[in-house]
Amino acid sequence: MSTDLPRSHWDIFCKVVDNFGDIGVCWRLAQQLAEEHGRHIRLWVDDLALAKRFTGAGHARITLKHWTDHSDFSRVAEVVIETFGCGLPESYQQQMRPQQSLWINVDYLSAESWVEGFHAQPSPQANGLVRYFFYPGFTASTGGLLRESDLPERQAQYRWQDLRLEPAPSKLTLSLFCYTHAPLAGLVDSLQHSTQAVRVMVPEPVAPMLANVLDVTGLEVGEHIQRQQAEFVIIPFLSQADYDRLLYLCDFNFVRGEDSWIRAIWAGKPMIWLPYQQSEETHLVKLKAFMQHYLAQAEAPLSAVIQHAMQAWAQDSWQATDWESLLSVLPQFRQHAQAFKLHQSQQVDLATNLVIFIEKYCTHRV
Ligand code: TRH
């Protein structure tokens, strides 16, 4: 079987729908395939400027390519990874057939049970190509979750000083990464009246929402705003590596979407997840499925508090009591988050599952 590019050269296609998750996940996957599995990756992205905010100094085995209608698709890879159903360029597909390239769509993450039935299934395309669906997930019958093999060693080195920040042992430190539909006013009110002093790390993309709630004109990176029991600290949009540090060093994390959600699990700290809003409230079905999995081993009183808080945060019904209830179970929540992290870390990671799937496929075909 001949292809244009050597077997170890894979292509990943990424379309930035909105926000950061699409490129965040693709860059993380590309790095792990290059770093831990020795692949050479061409990462095709339609929004190069945003991609460069994530790739920073890049990686020796990863080439960032601009995906446009005029891109040079004269050479195709044997293994082609589409992400989040972004599709593949027509002209590129035309070349995949003669080359018998393997087409895999790494789709959105969900804890819903149907995922297991669709994972790794072939979908014959009208043009004769076969598109395999690869579903990330929390169980062994899915593609797994992105998790770097050296994460525990890295976490052991994390220090606030790495982030040019100081620890604040007398306070609970939170990180706050949410969407505009989050009931932020309710949370800010409950934190201002918190029975325990809190420090809230607010990444730059969230600052305009907070400025609105605090009724101040604009909040700059580096600003500290004290409101009774709550100190809000505006921090820059960090590198993914530094954001991992922040999640690990905080006592409590508010996260969202796809990637920060999983990074909060690997941080092993109490967290509240806000799913990306979808039509017909599909995101609430995703939230329910995740809580069922996340809280399967949790004691009923703890599970009830966490469920109520996550639902209130996703359904715009956050009460001050939600924060005080979380505070009242924080020690148990910490233990639970640690136990869930250890349990979930037993699962084979997504990049490794992808390599195993592809090797099995390629060996079978030769
Ligand atoms: O930015 P998001 O809301 O991305 C979303 C979701 O992926 C969603 O599923 C998708 O449909 C939508 O985009 C289009 O949330 P997510 O997935 O957590 O991605 C954020 C990325 O940004 C993640 O890789 C972490 C990274 N990040 C940093 O690198 N530095 C930071 O300071 C912060 C706050 C985030």
Summarize the main sheet.
7 strands, mixed
Termini Cα gap: 7 Å
The strand line-up of the biggest sheet is 3-2-1-4-5-7-6
Spans of 5+ residues with little confidence (pLDDT < 50)? Answer: none
Shape: globular
Which whole number gives the mean pLDDT? 95
Query: Radius of gyration from the CA trace?
Result: 21 Å
**Count of DSSP E strands?**
13
Helix content: 40-55%
Polypeptide structure, described:
α9 links the parallel β12 and β13. α1 packs across α14 and α11 runs antiparallel to α12. 41% of the residues lie in helices and 18% in strands. The longest helix has 17 residues. The protein is globular. A seven-stranded mixed beta sheet has the order 3-2-1-4-5-7-6, with helices on one face. With 366 residues, the chain is an alpha/beta fold. It contains 14 helices and 13 strands. The site of 2'-deoxy-thymidine-beta-L-rhamnose has 19 residues, from α1, α8 and α9.
What's a concise summary of this model?
The protein is an alpha/beta fold and 366 residues long.
Keyphrases for this structure?
366 residues; alpha/beta; 13 strands; 41% helix; binds 2'-deoxy-thymidine-beta-L-rhamnose
List the helices and strands and how they pair.
Elements: E1 9-14, H1 21-37, E2 40-45, H2 48-55, E3 62-66, E4 79-83, H3 90-99, E5 102-106, H4 114-118, E6 121-124, E7 130-134, H5 151-157, E8 172-176, H6 184-192, E9 198-203, H7 207-214, E10 224-227, E11 230-235, H8 240-249, E12 252-256, H9 259-267, E13 271-274, H10 282-294, H11 300-314, H12 320-328, H13 330-344, H14 350-365
This protein binds 2'-deoxy-thymidine-beta-L-rhamnose.
2'-deoxy-thymidine-beta-L-rhamnose is lined by residues 17-22, 24, 177, 203, 237-238, 240, 243, 256-260, 276.
